Amino acid sequence: MKRLLSNSRSVLEIETPIIITPDQIQTFSENGTGGGYTPSEFAQSSTTNGDGWGADMKRPKGTGGKGTIHNIATPNVMRDFMGEQNHNQSVIDTQYNSRFSTVIADIERKLSEQKVTAKNGQTLSASESASIDQKVTLELIDETKSKASSLETRSRGLKGLSPFFLMEVLPRNMMAEFLNSRVGTPESLTALYNSFDDAYSSALEIKALSISERVLTNRLAETAALKDRADLAEGKSNNLASQDYRLFTIERERDIYAQQLPKFLQSELSIQAGQVPGHLTSQTLRHHQATLDRMAANKLAEVQPVQAPPPFSSGGITLHFPANNPKINAPLSKPELEALNELVYLQKNTKIGTKWLSYHEALLKTESAAHLKSTSESSPNWPSVQMMLSRQSKPSNSRLNSTQPLARDLEKEPLLWRRDWHRALKVRPSAMQNKRSMHSTLTRMHSTKNSAHKTGRQFQTL
Q1: What is the pLDDT of residues 122-180, one digit of tens each?
Q2: Rounded Cα distance, 431 and 241, in Å
Q3: Which of 21, 53, 322, 452 has a 20 to 30 Å separation from 11 between CA atoms?
């Protein structure tokens, strides 16, 4: 290369021309080759000795196999997809907060209306009126319980768990699984959102029904006392049929009170109560009450001091948490206490996390004790029961003598013999006039009940 002078201007003369030999075909060139890839680009370059895909040893975009990115559900993506679920949940919460504010008044109004309808303007004695009130109350309890039972499966549509205290966990996990599966469709995404809403709203409806059932159950003692006083005033209190019917009502009330407990406490009560064959009905009732009181005391004795979760530090910022979980507080309804029992189990046995575990355990114990104590204090109208049963000198043939009513028969066992008792009253009224005939009738009905259970027959409770 040399510099020449021409017309007083500097001229750069290049003796050796520059020749550029690209390793890849230029996408834009003089021959009009346009953008994008051409088949020749997939040919192996001479610089790779026939061993690769070019100088950079990488496949061009779009030519590879299955991607290496497995987690689509990144925080930003999850935030976008969970926004709708969070909005829907807040709408459901608003609706049910309104429902909960009036649920007690609503069920009391419904009970009053059904009592008026059942009496149908008839002229009734005080005893007859009290009997109808008692019957209507028991039927409304059964109706409320049936509605709650019908929603149980729907409320557990998220992996079979109660959604009460897991709505920040279950929907996110299920959405992440959906996104990472790479097989979702718009229709299946909509169905997933609907499953979140259906499970949560069903759980809240069960809570409302549980509160209603508790209100109705608390009316049983008052209704029974009115019936007892009316029978006494009308000279029916010494009638053997009235006394035995009252025994059967007491048994049904006992089962209803016990069913107010969460299922895990029902199972514990069944085990701890055991069986006391041959005891008087009054002794059996006292045994149940003593068992409930003992269980409540044991729960309180097991409560441990609450420890605040450890601080969380990130990026130079440290967060401190209160000792109590602000989203789970007493008092808890029956379905909420069942959900808390599940949460504690999951925290102790899975990788869901242990934040606020000590508080959850303590709250589970104290709320369990509160439910047990409430059931003990509410169980059937103890003063009138003791007065009525004081004349009992022999062990009753009633199923009350078995103190194992919960895990097996509280929810499912048909009261076949009660149906047959009413049938006997209609078919053989004279048989109720003396104690010997009554004993024979009861013995026959219990024999029928036992044979029915052996054959697996199903009957509906009256």
Answers
A1: 999 998 999 999 999 999 999 999 999 999 999 999 999 999 999 999 999 999 999 99
A2: 10
A3: 21
d(CA 235, CA 251): 23
pLDDT in tens, 4-14: 444 444 444 44
Token pair of 161 as six digits = 């768990």
- What are the pLDDT digits (tens) for 233-271? 888 767 777 777 788 888 888 889 999 999 999 999 999
Q: Judge whether 122 and 139 are in contact, CB under 8 Å.
A: no
Q: Which two tokens stand for residue 70?
A: 């497995």
The strand pair at 312-314 and 317-319 is best described as antiparallel
Token look-up 């003796």 returns 15
Q: How many CB atoms lie within 10 A of CB 126?
A: 14
Residue 12: its H or E element: strand 9-13
**Is the full-model pTM beyond 0.85?**
no
Q: In the structure encoding, which two tokens stand for residue 188, read together?
A: 């299946």
**Cα–Cα distance list, 347 to 86, 135, 208, 300, 360 (Å):** 23, 44, 27, 21, 10
Res 111: pLDDT: 97
Tell me the H-state helices in 75-125. Answer: 75-119
Sign of the alpha-carbon dihedral angle for 33, 36, 39, 43: positive
- The pair phi, psi for residue 161, each rounded to 5°, is -110, 155
